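Figure S4 source data
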Amino acid sequence: SAKALAVAGLGVIGRDRYGVYPLKGKMLNVREATTKKMTENNEVSQLVKILGLNYGEKYVNKSDLSKLRYGKLMIMADQDQDGSHIKGLVINFIHYKWPNLLKHDYIEVFITPILKVRYY
């Protein structure tokens, strides 16, 4: 899984500058949710807290970005339909609430490897 790959990588490079937060299933589609539903959703509220995002902030320039806890958000998801859906929901969330973060290349997507094993 993408989580196992990320945790294994942290074992090599350390946790001083990097963190891992595994989403539990698919994230809330925020475009169809009320503000109350968003703030009450555990996955959404935890992601906001971990990244240091502020709902009132526009993140227009580099000094605004320096207020965040991490310089980038890297999405690692399995290379299947669910993984693609999860990536889309996370990008959708950031775009809907903080579109300027996409302009600053705040989000990166890590393409996890697909392995095919054959038994002979």
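Figure S5 source data
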Amino acid sequence: MRLNPLDGELPSSLQGEDAARWTFGANIDLIRSAEIVMARLDDFRGSDEPDSGTAFEVGFAVARGTPLWAYRSTETTLAERVKATTVNSDGGICEAGYLIEDFGLRVNLMLACSAHIVVGGPDMCLDAIAPVLDGAPPVLGGSGLAKR
């Protein structure tokens, strides 16, 4: 069965922090009940990083030992997306003054090394997952690094 965040309806009586806590609990319950988690790791709200809520959900799934699949719409690496304003002996430095990790991965290493990552959209990711549900080994391209 396919589960989506907020499969249940938010009670109309809840607002603000109460609505947020209900949503958190509902999403955690969904992850607990999932056999496989699929996450969208595209850049979010203009940043060069995935949604922080999705990153939390990915970490929660990994901590539970739930197989994780993810997708990104582009092949660009994290280092290609985050522009360096200066370069020193350690590598590129972003405008906020932090080192830009450059492992050649599409996302932060903690996400990349915990998920089978598919370049494309949700349908392509589901197509990659389907044979695995039937017992086949994952067929991955590029940075499908999950080897837990």
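Strands lie at 37-40, 68-72, 86-88, 91-93, 116-119. The longest strand covers residues 68-72.
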